[in-house]
Design goal:
Elements lengths: L1 H10 L5 H52 L6 E4 L2 E5 H4 L7 H5 L3 E3 L14 E3 L10 E2 L6 E2 L29 E4 H6 L34 E5 L42 E2 L19 E2 L20 E2 L4 E5 L4 E4 L5 H8 L12
Parallel strand pairs: 7-9, 10-11
Antiparallel strand pairs: 1-2, 3-4, 5-6, 7-8, 8-12, 12-13
Length: 351
């Protein structure tokens, strides 16, 4: 009997090859079932962060309006800052006042794409004037201000983040509605000559400008950081500035002021480089455009002239401070009506 019990214990040693294969197959099936659920949870978290960023941006805009009794321009001199784009003007209201103040430092000797800023040639010009040559002296080693990452301006779901040009990582995933910040009256005006300080400044204010109601007017929307389907384009938070060292304002060959194909704009307006952001019925946003970082000739579908979202719906920030998702199948006329602050369009309550 003792010998039988010993033999019985000996033959129960481990799994057979078939049993191991069955266990592995079960694990593979479970992983296959769980992976989509994990991806959905991650996307939900990313979308929530994107919505929260929009909320912070629109609240910052309201705080700015409270201080100056008007909204900042799409690009222009405002609030003690010269020749600056919209997202630069909002920096103090998203706890980035230190970043804004870096615009007093410039390195005229460091041309774009050639070399990094040099502490020995970086000077304090005494005014807040962001240019291509502005230096972030708080970084070690020095970097250009245009390369400063602003997390509030980046949606973690944006697949084009980091696929930028020489301004990495200063790309952004949100843009301002030109018909509000630039002004409906300027939507077809090309910046040239001496008009560059007015054609991107709508002089908007809350609540006076919003005849259609703040709840019915979009201030901000998502827009891919890189979007090359219709030629080089995208969204950079500090785009729309002068080179600074090249020539007087408006005369430098590298100037993008008040804006160009890489500016945080949608809904209308014309850029210094001839870019025309689509407006009216043609302005409806894109949902998950394919291959945003490559040209149309190789399959890129992203249009830099439109707002664009990585989600199944377009997240927008309204003038009343709320954030909402707009369905992909929304009527283009409704979208266009939501972009005009005083177009007197009647929007359905459930759009």
């Amino acid at each position: 009997m003792l010998r039988d019990r010993h033999y019985s214990r000996a033959v129960r040693g481990g799994f057979t090859l078939v049993e191991l294969l069955v266990v592995i197959a079960i694990i593979a099936v479970l992983v296959g079932l769980l992976l989509p659920a994990v991806q959905k949870v991650r996307e939900a978290a990313s979308r929530a962060q994107c919505e929260n960023n929009l909320k912070q941006i629109v609240l910052a805009t309201h705080n700015c309006n409270d201080v100056y009794l008007r909204l900042p321009p799409q690009a222009g001199s405002f609030g003690g800052s010269y020749y600056a784009p919209l997202l630069f003007h909002l920096l103090p209201y998203i706890e980035q006042d230190t970043t804004r103040n870096m615009a007093v430092w410039l390195d005229y000797s460091a041309f774009v794409g050639e070399k990094a800023p040099n502490p020995a040639t970086t000077i304090n010009i005494g005014v807040i004037w962001p240019t291509w040559d502005s230096v972030n002296v708080s970084s070690d080693p020095y970097t250009f201000l245009r390369q400063t990452r602003i997390k509030t301006y980046q949606c973690p779901s944006d697949p084009s983040l980091g696929n930028c040009l020489d301004w990495c990582p200063g790309d952004a995933s949100y843009a301002g509605n030109f018909l509000v910040f630039g002004g409906v009256q300027h939507k077809d005006t090309t910046p040239k000559g001496s008009n560059f300080e007015i054609v991107w400044d709508g002089g908007a204010r809350i609540p006076g400008t919003f005849v259609d109601g703040q709840v019915n007017t979009i201030l901000f929307a998502e827009k891919y950081a890189r979007c090359d389907g219709t030629g080089l384009g995208g969204t950079w938070w500090m785009r729309g500035v002068f080179h600074g060292a090249q020539a007087p304002p408006g005369q430098g060959s590298d100037d993008s002021y008040p804006g160009d194909r890489l500016s945080a704009v949608f809904g209308g307006g014309r850029g210094a480089d001839g870019t025309r952001w689509l407006q009216g019925l043609s302005s409806k946003f894109q949902v998950q455009p394919k291959n945003p970082g490559v040209g149309a000739s190789v399959g890129g579908k992203c249009d830099k002239r439109l707002a664009s979202t990585p989600h199944s719906v377009m997240n927008v920030a309204m003038a009343d401070g709320s954030v909402k998702g707009v369905a992909q199948n929304v009527n283009p006329a409704i979208w266009a009506g939501a972009l005009t602050p005083a177009g007197r369009e009647v929007l359905p309550g459930d759009w």
